[in-house]
Design a protein that fits this description.
Keywords: ATP-binding, Kinase, Nucleotide-binding, Phosphoprotein, Transferase, Two-component regulatory system. It catalyses: ATP + protein L-histidine = ADP + protein N-phospho-L-histidine. The chain is α+β, with helices and mostly antiparallel strands. It is built from seven helices and five strands, in the order ααααβαββααββ. The chain has a five-stranded mixed beta sheet. The longest helix has 48 residues.
Length: 222
């Protein structure tokens, strides 16, 4: 039967198409909208120097600060959608960069522990692992009600294991998998790259997400 392989190919194509679109939007936000707003900001700052009325000068200054904040938010959103370091430097640098953004946004500190030597992953694996980690961290921000979490990377000769833990509210696993499209998507994404996503949680005790990926024949991946 070729039904399952065909379904996997279609789903993989959809995911890749989504990633291409996300990358395009991130680039447009940063290079298009972001640059346009920055040009407006510099123009507004020039106008501020020519205004003599104190009330109007204060108003222009406030508008400048608001525009500057908007520019920063757009740049941060672009990085969150598609961090440049994911392509240029690899998974770990991209995750570390994202955790800084995550902490500044949600106020949740994430302690990261790394064992073993990082292995070069292909683009599909890097993107998938990054997206699944993003989703796991987003769930912590939405539901866990904590200020600190733990993330670990264990690189071994034949496999990579990523653990994301929190000591938050926890939830009922059976109901969680059934009701959350995000959790189901995490598992499905891992399956497409030959990996696995396991979840354990107890109400009142927290949640652990465990991602595993075989690393056979990955040393020459780009």
């Amino acid at each position: 039967m070729e039904t399952q392989p065909l379904k996997n190919n279609i789903s993989s194509y959809i995911i890749q198409s989504q990633e291409d679109e996300i990358k395009r939007i991130a680039l447009e936000l940063h290079e298009g909208v972001g640059q346009t707003l920055y040009s407006l900001f510099t123009g507004l700052k020039f106008i501020e120097t020519t205004v003599e009325q104190e009330a109007l000068k204060g108003y222009v200054s406030d508008m400048g600060e608001l525009l500057e904040k908007t520019i920063q938010e757009i740049r941060l959103l672009a990085v969150e959608l598609h961090p440049p370091t994911l392509t240029t430097l690899g998974l770990l640098p991209a995750v570390k960069s994202y955790l800084k953004l995550y902490t500044s946004t949600y106020g949740i500190e994430v302690d990261i522990d790394i064992t073993g030597e990082e292995v070069c992953l292909n683009q599909s694996e890097r993107i998938t692992l990054f997206r699944v980690c993003q989703e796991a961290l987003a769930n912590i921000a939405r539901y866990a009600d904590i200020v600190r979490a733990v993330m670990s990377f264990s690189w071994k000769e034949n496999d990579l294991t990523i653990m994301i833990k929190d000591n938050g509210k926890g939830f009922d696993i059976e109901k969680g998998w059934e009701k959350s499209t995000g959790l189901a998507a995490m598992r499905e994404r891992m399956l497409f790259i030959g990996g696995d996503c396991q979840l354990s949680s107890k109400v009142g005790e927290g949640t652990v997400v465990r991602l595993s990926l075989p690393l056979n024949d990955t040393t020459d991946k780009k």
